[in-house]
Structures are given as structure tokens and as C-alpha cells.
Design goal:
Blueprint (H helix, E strand, L loop, with lengths): L3 E4 L11 H21 L4 E3 L24 H12 L15 E4 L2 E2 L1 H9 L3 E2 L11 E9 L5 E11 L3 H5 L1 H5 L9 H6 L1 H4 L3 E3 L3 H6 L6 H18 L14 E3 L9 E3 L5 E3 L2 E5 L4 E8 L4 E9 L4
Parallel strand pairs: 1-2, 1-5, 5-7, 8-14
Antiparallel strand pairs: 3-4, 3-6, 6-7, 9-12, 10-11, 12-13, 13-14
Helix pairs in contact: 1-2
Length: 302
């Protein structure tokens, strides 16, 4: 079972002046990853910059190899990073938004939130020693309006945080048992409230096995399924579990597909996935209390 964790790059600054305290930061993070590994053995660490290339001003991450008390800890952290199928977490779609801790933007924390996992922080300050991080998120709403919201990002920097986030870690869906073809073959069992145009099979098969994109797509489909299954069309729209919006009038022509009944329909509702500007386009069928998925792939018309 594989769980991706994402490095909080903001925790890579503000290191203590004391070499002993610096060493404790590295040791604590390694102990955290070790505790996590006991719970989910095949976890890995993602970062925007390779861990071994990190520079902290007057010293680098690899300089901890020169500290006898840190060598094992450094090896543990590098081992977690080396398990990653990606050298970095890649592009975050600018249409999705931006995450701030105070006045500082953090791509790492935001990416962790987007894929539903925890941030990993060096415990270099009290702020990063907490099991959650208060964040402010700015996202694009309809008509390019900025929508502001606050959130608490799960954070792990100390071994006890693994127990704090036990439900999140243990409940992470297993990426090792499917590829896009298997998602397609299990669609009726996994997503009983969703119908899929036959063309979507090709979209799913084009996603790389066990990739972050495939993981995001599956998570988004589960979220759409959950929202549609509990939807009462007489009351209003479904309660979406992630950002779902409809296309503006000027872009609706990109979203036309032939339905399973052979009629041209507009599939303007869409969820987002990343890395990149990924979209899942669907239309709602209120009379049947269902949704029909037409497209999974890059942003249409981009």
C-alpha cells in the first residue's frame, strides 16, 4: 500500500543555530518517517526539489552526512525520497489556486491538500512541530473571481503525529492494485451512481499506472460518486467534496460530446486533478439522480 507524503518547503528555512538542535530536527523527521513506514510500509516522500539537493543557506542537507549522529537519519529520509516514482510533484494548475501560511505561499502544502495526504515538515520551529498547519487558500471561482477560504493542513514532523493522522494514513486508497484499465473494468462496482461514455475507457487507459494523476482521478471519481449518491435534486445541487464548477458560457462548446443515447449533450460540470490542468467532465441527470462522465484528461481548449 502506497501513501505519498509531500515536503513542506517552508520548513526548510529558519533552522536553529545550534548544530545539536539541527541534528535533532533531522533525527525527529527520520523517526517520523520510520513510524509511518511501520504503518504503511511503501510510503514515499515527494518534494519540489530533490531532497539531496536541498540547500539551507550556510549548509546543505547532505552536509548532515558529516555528523555521525545524523547519518542513519539522513539515509532514512533519502530512502523515502528515492521511493518516489516522480523526481518532483510537477506543475500545479494555476486555475486551481494558491495556498498561504501567513504571507508565504507553499506549493508543497497545497499539493498535499490537493491529493488528500499530509505535509511532511522539518521541525525547525514551533509552527512546524504542530500536527496541523493553518492555511489560507485562494482559488478561482466562476468568472475568474477569487474565492478565499481557510483550512487546516495535516502535518507530520514528529513521531506522535503518525498516530494523530492514523485515519488519514490507514484510509489512503491502495494505488498498487489498479491501472486505468482496471478502473474501467470496476467502474460499476466502485461508482454505481455514475455512467461513463465508452470513450472514457481510452482516457483512463492513457493514465500511467500508479501515477499521481491516476490517484487523483480515482479520488475525484469517488468524491463525485459520494456526492451524487446522496443528492436530492429537489433541494439543489449535490454537496461536492472537492472543487466542482461548470464551464462559462464562452467555453461550453468545448464540452459537447455524444451521449450514450447518441445525442449531443453539454458536459460542462467538471472536477480538477493535478499534476497539470486535469479535468473530469460530466453532466448531471436529475431525473435518474445520476451523473454521466464524458471526458478525463487535460483542460479542454487549452
Amino acid at each position: 500500500m502506497t501513501v505519498p507524503l509531500v515536503l513542506n518547503e517552508l520548513s526548510c528555512v529558519g533552522w536553529p543555530d545550534s548544530p545539536r538542535e539541527r541534528a535533532e530536527c533531522v533525527q525527529n523527521l527520520a523517526a517520523t518517517l520510520s513510524a509511518l513506514s511501520r504503518l504503511r510500509r511503501r510510503s514515499f516522500l515527494l518534494s519540489e526539489t530533490k531532497i539531496g539537493s536541498l540547500s539551507f543557506g550556510t549548509f546543505t542537507f547532505n552536509s548532515f552526512f558529516n555528523e555521525p549522529t545524523c547519518r542513519d537519519a539522513v539515509r532514512q529520509i533519502l530512502a523515502f525520497a528515492n521511493r518516489s516514482p516522480l523526481s518532483s510533484f510537477g506543475e500545479i494548475d494555476s486555475d486551481i489556486g494558491e495556498c498561504f501560511v501567513g504571507e508565504q505561499s507553499s506549493r508543497g502544502i497545497y499539493f498535499a491538500l490537493l491529493i488528500g495526504t499530509a505535509a511532511i515538515s522539518f521541525p525547525t520551529s514551533e509552527q512546524w512541530r504542530n500536527s496541523t498547519i493553518s492555511v489560507h487558500i485562494q482559488e478561482l471561482g466562476k468568472e475568474a473571481a477569487i474565492v478565499d477560504r481557510s483550512d487546516l493542513a495535516p502535518n507530520m514532523s514528529l513521531p506522535e503525529h503518525v498516530n494523530t493522522h492514523f485515519d488519514l494514513i490507514s484510509g489512503f486508497r491502495d494505488l498498487d492494485v489498479f491501472d486505468g484499465g482496471e478502473v474501467w473494468s470496476k467502474r460499476s462496482d466502485w461508482f454505481p451512481s455514475l455512467d461513463f461514455l465508452t470513450r472514457v475507457e481510452g482516457d483512463l487507459r492513457s493514465l500511467k499506472t500508479n501515477s499521481l494523476q491516476l490517484m487523483q482521478v480515482v479520488n475525484r471519481l469517488f468524491e463525485i460518486e459520494c456526492a451524487i449518491a446522496s443528492w436530492d435534486p429537489q433541494i439543489g445541487l449535490p454537496e461536492w467534496k472537492s472543487k466542482v464548477t461548470s464551464e462559462g458560457e464562452q467555453r461550453r462548446h468545448y464540452c459537447q460530446f455524444n451521449s450514450s443515447a447518441g445525442q449531443s449533450e453539454v458536459y460542462d460540470w467538471h472536477a480538477r486533478f493535478t499534476p497539470g490542468a486535469g479535468r473530469i467532465h460530466f453532466r448531471m441527470v436529475p431525473n435518474a439522480r445520476r451523473a454521466e462522465v464524458a471526458y478525463i484528461g487535460p483542460k479542454l481548449g487549452a
